[in-house]
Design goal:
The complex is a heterodimer of chains A (about 220) and B (about 260). Chain A is mainly alpha-helical and about 220 residues long. Chain A has helices at about 5-45, 50-65, 65-75, 85-125, 130-150, 150-160, 170-180, 185-215, 220-225. Chain B has a six-stranded mixed beta sheet with strand order 6-7-8-3-9-10, sandwiched between helices. In chain B, strands 2-1-4-5 form a four-stranded antiparallel beta sheet, with helices on one face. Chain B has nine helices and ten strands. In chain B, strand 9 and strand 10 (about 215-220) form a beta hairpin. The longest helix of chain B has 21 residues, at about 235-255. Chain B is an alpha/beta fold and about 260 residues long. In chain B, helix 3 (about 100-110) packs across helix 4 (about 115-125), helix 4 (about 115-125) crosses helix 5 and helix 5 packs parallel to helix 6. The chains are: A mainly alpha (about 220), B alpha/beta (about 260). At the A-B interface, helix 4, helix 5 and helix 9 of A face helix 2, strand 6 and helix 3 of B.
């Protein structure tokens, strides 16, 4: 049973390389998801009616269908329409487009919580609508969203494991290869699980740090009122 | 000859079937302090919100000096710079310090340099007695201090007129005094003010004119002496008697 610890010696290099790809997938997916998610949230909260509906439809579709289906449509389906991506780009896109839908919902919730009152306050001193959004609402909404939004990077990191299905060489793929050489599925996947766990802990610590760093004294009391 | 700063003509605001007020006429002269009183739900706050265009009236016109601000195509952001607003719930920007709150409009709307904005903002904070709290966040300030920052934030834009929407209603009784004192000083300094409040002591002492609104109409307006001592309408007398009784008691409790 303890032999699996030995796998770190034997496959350490491979796991490390795979973990690097996993982190890269997480980071790129998160950034695409954040930028697009923020745009979606802004569209839903402040856009014209048609844009609100379009953003709502996007969110409903991407939250309502399995990520794996989305990944396969992007990687296997789109080439039939003449749009082909490499495995990695297809993975970035699928993770990013999917994560955007979830991130949009986290952000929308906190934008609504900061709400129309702060909008009025901003407008009352002569800031335009978009200045108020940029200087007043988002700085507060992003902070407010942070604790619940922190689930998303963690969840995304673990979700990236499905991309081995389109042969992206992530940690899961490296694990699978090691497993088929040793035939010790339990041992190998336990080792892989430990690597995921370490990454999740590190990411969690980073997010907690970010939360502390951006905290405004007394603001939690303010927004709860 | 007093110079009108705000001229309101035939103003009507409805939400669907619900008439908030209609055919309202009011003139505010330079340097005047107008106190608007009346039962809740009579459209006092909505009137203030119409004046700084946070809500659009359905009918009627508002002039700020010689500019009709209700005209189509008015640059609302431009207009609001000149009309300061103080909210019942303070509505400070919670992610900014007291200084940051006062500075934001100066740097982003007036495009002042950071240095000039800081200097001006500190002046306004001193004016409300909070220079020593400049680096505190709203969450670290008492309600009375927060409201004074709210006043400083509005003052920093050098508005032509200041609107106060029940500025002390959300405050604990012992914190009301410090806010009223700042407002009293502002009135003395010649600021033009429209104040919706239930603080009858303030109204009696500071107001040049008191406007009594009920059910969307101006029932009566006049000097504090006229309104308190010889109101024309029984309704005015009744309301003033009731509100003085109620709030006078609260003031006494606070002592």
């Amino acid at each position: 049973m303890l032999t699996w610890l030995g796998y770190f010696e034997r496959f350490g290099q491979n796991f490390l390389r795979g973990a690097g790809v996993t982190l890269e997938l997480t980071a790129v997916g998160l950034v695409i998801g954040f930028v697009l998610g923020l745009l979606l949230a802004l569209a839903r909260c402040f856009g014209p009616k048609w844009l609100q509906r379009a953003a709502g439809a996007y969110i409903a579709i991407f939250r309502g269908t399995p990520l794996l289906v989305q990944l396969f449509i992007i990687y296997y389906g789109l080439p039939e329409l003449g749009i082909a991506f490499s495995q990695n780009v297809a993975a970035y896109l699928a993770l990013g487009l999917n994560s955007a839908a979830y991130q949009a919902e986290y952000l929308r919730g906190s934008i609504n919580a900061i709400g129309s009152a702060q909008m009025q306050a901003g407008r009352s001193i002569g800031l335009s609508k978009w200045q108020t959004i940029g200087y007043v609402i988002l700085p507060q909404a992003l902070r407010l969203a942070l604790p619940s939004w922190s689930n998303e990077p963690i969840s995304l990191l673990k979700t990236t494991a499905i991309v081995f299905l389109i042969a992206v060489q992530d940690l899961m793929a490296e694990g699978k290869r090691a497993a088929t050489t040793t035939f010790d599925f339990v041992g190998i996947y336990l080792a892989v699980a430990v690597v995921y766990l370490v990454m999740v802990f590190a990411l969690d610590a980073l997010l907690k740090f970010l939360e502390r760093k951006t905290k405004i004294p007394g603001m939690d009391i303010e927004t709860r009122r | 000859m007093p110079k009108p700063i705000l001229t309101i003509k035939n103003l009507t605001k409805t939400y669907g079937q619900n008439v908030i007020f209609q055919h309202l006429d009011l003139t505010v002269n330079e340097g005047d302090t107008i106190v608007i009183i009346g039962p809740s739900g009579t459209g006092k706050s909505t009137l203030l919100r119409c004046i700084n265009l946070l809500t659009r009236p359905n009918e009627g016109q508002i002039w700020l000096d010689d500019l009709e601000i209700t005209a189509k195509g008015t640059d609302e952001d431009q207009v609001r710079q000149h009309i300061g607003m103080v909210f019942q719930n303070f509505l400070l920007f919670n992610h900014l310090t007291a200084l940051g709150n006062v500075k934001l409009g100066l740097t982003k709307v007036k495009h002042m340099s950071d240095e000039a904005a800081t200097e001006k903002a500190m002046r306004e904070l001193s004016r409300v007695g909070l220079a020593d709290r400049a680096d505190h966040y709203p969450g670290q300030l008492s309600g009375g201090q927060q409201q004074r920052v709210g006043i400083a934030r509005a003052l920093a834009m050098d508005p032509r007129v200041m609107l106060f929407d029940e500025p002390t209603s959300a405050l604990d009784p012992e914190l009301i005094g410090e806010v009223l004192e700042v407002m009293r000083q502002l009135a003395l300094d010649g600021m033009t003010m429209m104040v919706v409040t239930h603080e009858m002591g303030f109204a009696r002492e500071v107001a040049d004119r008191i406007v009594f609104m009920e059910k969307g109409f101006i029932v009566e307006e006049g000097s504090p002496d006229e309104m308190f001592n010889h109101p024309k309408f029984d309704r005015t007398r009744e309301f003033l008697w009731k509100i003085t009784e109620l709030y006078g008691k609260k003031e006494k409790d606070a002592e």
